[in-house]
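Example S7 (structure tokens).
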């Protein structure tokens, strides 16, 4: 019996490690690819007024926000070998960081559209983006208040009732983020190269494929990877009373 328990623990540890390695690869690669596209094909970056290069911050900040930062926030409870209470703090901090990057990405594209005379929020990509952003803001707000990450929150009954919705909304954000990013990549390529194939299509395509791999990896971790440390009774105490 001791052998089987030890072997199961070893296999679980390997599963966690491999899952984390795959996640890091598919979370970092799209950031590298989109920065490469912006530098090689998009002209680089600039926050100067009326500069067309301001747009290039938008996909970079959004991929960092949702794929890298939010992705780490979602898998923290499954992967990190830390106390549950500490993982709650990490989860909350990463969610707030994702909100900050997402706001920066939103400001970049709205400024770009306004300065260049383009309309805002008319495409499928922008509608999906608004839904995803709204979910992110609500998730961060709900997590901070209901689960007592920073202030005294709700009762145990309210937390128990809200938790399934929080988990489902987080999983939905993974799918929505992947769909939003992929439609954004397609939209940008269509605007830049409407009538002909261009070599930068490979960069967009590889970026989209890595985003889909990222979404699959995150959902796999949520479904198939067990938590490394369970919740303890003391984890429910608020930080501030």
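Recovered sequence:
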């Amino acid at each position: 019996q001791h052998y089987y328990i030890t072997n199961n623990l070893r296999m679980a540890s390997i599963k966690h490690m491999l899952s984390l390695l795959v996640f890091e690869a598919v979370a970092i690669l799209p950031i590298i690819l989109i920065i490469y596209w912006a530098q090689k094909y998009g002209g680089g970056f600039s926050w100067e007024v009326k500069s067309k290069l301001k747009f290039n911050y938008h996909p970079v900040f959004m991929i960092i926000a949702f794929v890298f930062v939010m992705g780490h926030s979602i898998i923290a409870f499954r992967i990190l070998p830390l106390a549950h209470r500490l993982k709650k703090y990490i989860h909350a901090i990463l969610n707030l960081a994702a909100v900050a990057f997402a706001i920066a990405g939103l400001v970049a594209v709205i400024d770009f559209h306004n300065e260049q005379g383009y309309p805002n929020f008319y495409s499928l990509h922008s509608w999906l983006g608004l839904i995803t952003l709204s979910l992110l803001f609500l998730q961060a707000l709900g997590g901070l208040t209901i689960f007592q990450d920073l202030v005294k929150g709700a009762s145990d009954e309210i937390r128990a009732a809200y938790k399934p919705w929080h988990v489902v909304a987080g999983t939905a954000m993974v799918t929505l983020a992947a769909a939003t990013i992929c439609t954004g990549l397609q939209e940008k390529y269509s605007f830049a190269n409407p009538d002909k194939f261009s070599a930068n299509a490979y960069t967009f395509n590889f970026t989209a494929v890595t985003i889909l791999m990222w979404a699959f990896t995150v959902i796999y971790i949520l479904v198939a990877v067990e938590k490394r440390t369970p919740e303890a009774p003391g984890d429910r105490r608020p930080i501030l009373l």
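Notes on this example. The longest helix spans residues 2-40.
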